[in-house]
Design brief:
Length: 249
């Protein structure tokens, strides 16, 4: 069942989402050659807990950290550890914060040092595909109107969309109905209703859309080991323009 949030719900959720956004912003600022993924994770945890919230991901289905940090060919769910970021790496950071019964969820991909032209184009296309999809977050529309726009934009730039992982509803649970795919024809799926809160999160690959899970049971990589980027916001459906709950502007 899709959860429709009341104004009281949204008051709490806005706080969770702002904390999420601040933690992601802080993490992005420390991405540079030499820093370890566990050090980035510590920044995320410090901001979230220092704001009176809890990291949504810590302990979620056994996940051992506060952020998912994925480098280069890693798509999502990278486990922070002793790996040091290198010059030219791209680092995807996915963050969630839980506050007063509600979650926020957001992700972005950051370049470390001097990244390649292809990496830069991939990051920009991933972000662009999100905002193209955002144009279709309109009351009365359908979920796959968003999906189709995301796919058309990213593929027009020469990239592919991961298909086995999707966006999702967000609220009192980190992952709620409905699923929000990043591909497919328009006009299908749940109808968008005022008060819905969804995470739209394109995962865009430089090569094939096929992925595989590593032996740790978490880290997802591209099947051809080419680069991948990730961009996500928690979005509120309104009677007019959608609202980026995890935006800082």
């Amino acid at each position: 069942m899709i959860s429709i949030k009341s104004e009281k719900d949204l008051e709490k959720m806005r706080v969770a989402c702002r904390i999420t956004a601040l933690a992601l912003e802080a993490a992005g600022k420390v991405v540079e050659p030499g820093i370890t993924t566990s050090e980035i994770d510590a920044v995320v945890r410090r901001v979230i807990e220092g704001s009176g919230a809890k990291p949504s991901f810590l302990g979620y289905n056994g996940f051992p950290a506060s952020a998912c940090i994925s480098i280069n060919e890693q798509v999502i769910h990278g486990i922070p550890g002793n790996r040091a970021v290198k010059d030219g790496d791209i680092v995807s950071i996915d963050v969630g914060a839980y506050y007063d019964g509600y979650h926020g969820d957001s992700a972005n991909t950051f370049g470390a040092g001097n990244i390649s032209a292809q990496a830069s184009a991939l990051i920009e296309a991933t972000r662009g595909s999100f905002f193209e999809g955002l144009k279709y977050v309109r009351e009365g529309g359908r979920i796959t109107d968003i999906s189709h726009a995301v796919q058309q934009y990213a593929e027009s730039k020469g990239f592919s969309l991961v298909r086995v992982y999707t966006g999702h509803g967000v609220g009192s649970e980190l992952h709620e109905a409905p699923e929000v795919p990043n591909f497919g024809p328009p006009g299908h799926g749940a109808r968008l209703v005022r008060g819905m809160t969804i995470a739209i999160e394109p995962m865009v690959n430089a090569g094939t859309f096929d992925v595989k899970v590593l032996g740790d049971g978490w880290t997802v990589i591209t099947a051809d080991k080419k680069l991948s980027a990730h961009y996500e916001h928690t979005v509120l459906v309104t009677s007019g323009e959608p609202i980026l709950l995890t935006g800082l502007e």
